Amino acid sequence: MTKAIVELRTWRPLSVASPSTAERIVVYHLDVRQAKALRYQGRVSESLEYPQRSLLQSKHEAWFEDARPGLICELGDVYCELGDQLSAERLLEVEIKF
């Protein structure tokens, strides 16, 4: 699992300053996979930054509409594992109203 995390962290878009839509989608999926891998290792606190970053960076993307529910559930799971059920509940309430 550690090798997978290292591999996920080394990938970069060809143009970091102006990544293509396909590259932004790949970055989104890499963040989600890194979060899961870290959670499976018990590194839950460390995993929180990845779904949070993906949510902030992707929320205005047209392609994100289909990916949004999975990311919200992933982030909610992380909050619950950290004992922050209130943040998970707020996040899910916003998503239900969305």
What this model shows, in words?
This protein is mainly α and 98 residues long. The protein has helices at residues 2-10, 21-40, 44-47, 49-58, 64-81, 85-97. The radius of gyration is 14 Å and the shape is flat. The N and C termini lie far apart (35 Å). The mean pLDDT is 86.
List keywords for this structure.
6 helices, 76% helix, Serine Threonine Protein Phosphatase 5, Tetratricopeptide repeat, 98 residues, flat, mainly alpha
Q: Characterize the overall form.
A: flat
Mean pLDDT across every amino acid position: 86
Number of H- or I-type helical stretches: 6
Number of strands: 0
Rg from Cα: 14 Å
Distance between the termini: 35 Å
Structural class: mainly alpha
CATH architecture: Alpha Horseshoe
Number of domains: 1
Order of helices and strands: HHHHHH
Unreliable segments of 5+ consecutive residues: none
Name the CATH class: Mainly Alpha
Largest sheet: none
Indicate the percent of residues in helices. Answer: over 70%
CATH topology: Serine Threonine Protein Phosphatase 5, Tetratricopeptide repeat
Q: Which band does the percent of strand residues land in?
A: under 5%
Which helices and strands, and how do they pair?
Elements: H1 2-10, H2 21-40, H3 44-47, H4 49-58, H5 64-81, H6 85-97
Helix pairs in contact: 1-2, 2-4, 2-5, 4-5, 5-6
